[in-house]
Write a structure and sequence with these properties.
The chain is built from seven helices and nine strands; from the N terminus they run H-H-H-H-E-H-E-E-H-E-E-H-E-E-E-E. Strands 2, 3, 6, 7 and 8 form a five-stranded antiparallel β-sheet that branches.
C-alpha cells in the first residue's frame, strides 16, 4: 500500500521540532535566545488545539514541561547568585506561606527526627544535635517571591551537597523530594541540589531558625524562586520518579529558577 502524504501541518510541526532541538544543541545560549516561539508555534509543537478549556490546560502543561527542560539546560551549576552585606539584610524579614502566621507548625525539637530515604546508602534518622554537628556555612542572599517582592536574609547551616555526600546519596539520580510538617511538599533537580549555594539551613540572622521561617530546617536556594524553598522539613528522599510539588501540582513551573 502506498503511504499517505503527510499533511502540511504535520510537516510544519516536524520542522519546528527540528529547529528547537537544533538550537537546544547549540553551544551558545545567545543563539538559543534568538528563537522566539509564537503561541501558534507552541501549539503546533505540543499538538494541542486552543479551542476549548481542556485543550488549553493540556497545552499549558506541555509548554510548562518544555519550559522546565529549557531552564534545566540553561542552568549553570557553577554560577553563583549575588551575595550581600549584613547592612543590606531586610529587617523584619517577611513571613510567607500558603497559610496565616497563626497556623505555623510548631515542631518539638526534642522529638524531631529527619527521615532520609530513597536512593541513599545511609537511611538513618537525624536528630537536631546531629544536624548541628555538620560542617557550617552561611550566606546573605536574596529571596525572590513569585508574587513580585523580594527580601535579603542571612541563612546558616550546612551545604546540601555535603549532607548528600554524608548519607551516600546517588547523585546520578534525577530528583530530590521533601516532605514538610506543614503538609507542604516539593522537589528539585540534582544539579540544583549540588549547587554550592544550596544550603540546608538551621539558623536565620545568627539565631536558631524561628518557626515562622521554617524550624527545624529550611532548604535555602538563592538560584530558585521562593516557593521552591521548603520549610519545616521532615523527610528528604532521592528518586528517579518525578515527585511534583505543592504549587507545581497546581500549575506552577517546576524548575522555578535560573
Amino acid at each position: 500500500m502506498k503511504p499517505s502524504r503527510p499533511s502540511q501541518s504535520n510537516l510544519d510541526r516536524a520542522s519546528l521540532e527540528i529547529d528547537v532541538r537544533r538550537e537546544l544543541d547549540m553551544p551558545s545560549r545567545r543563539l538559543f535566545g534568538k528563537r522566539i516561539l509564537t503561541l501558534g508555534g507552541l501549539a503546533m509543537l505540543t499538538g494541542c488545539s486552543l479551542s476549548d478549556d481542556k485543550s488549553v490546560e493540556t497545552f499549558l502543561s506541555r509548554v510548562s514541561r518544555l519550559n522546565d527542560s529549557v531552564q534545566g539546560w540553561l542552568f549553570d551549576p557553577n554560577r553563583l547568585a549575588p551575595t550581600y552585606t549584613e547592612a543590606e539584610i531586610t529587617r523584619p524579614f517577611p513571613f510567607n506561606a500558603f497559610y496565616g502566621i497563626d497556623d505555623v507548625p510548631h515542631v518539638d525539637g526534642n522529638d524531631f527526627r529527619l527521615q532520609v530515604s530513597g536512593l541513599v546508602q545511609d537511611k538513618k534518622t537525624w536528630t537536631i544535635a546531629e544536624l548541628d554537628a555538620l560542617p557550617k556555612a552561611e550566606q546573605i542572599t536574596r529571596h525572590i517571591c513569585v508574587e513580585g517582592w523580594s527580601a535579603i536574609g542571612r541563612w546558616g547551616g550546612t551545604p546540601f551537597s555535603t549532607f548528600l555526600k554524608r548519607v551516600g546519596a546517588d547523585t546520578s539520580a534525577k530528583y530530590i523530594g521533601f516532605k514538610c510538617a506543614d503538609d507542604y511538599y516539593e522537589s528539585i533537580d540534582m544539579p540544583t541540589a549540588l549547587h554550592p549555594q544550596t544550603l540546608l539551613t538551621f539558623t536565620f540572622d545568627g539565631e536558631r531558625l524561628p518557626p515562622r521561617y521554617g524550624y527545624p530546617m529550611k532548604l535555602r536556594m538563592p538560584t530558585k524562586l521562593g516557593y521552591k524553598n521548603p520549610k519545616h522539613i521532615m523527610e528528604i528522599f532521592v528518586t528517579n520518579t518525578f515527585p511534583g510539588g505543592y504549587w507545581v501540582d497546581q500549575g506552577y513551573n517546576w524548575f522555578g529558577g535560573s
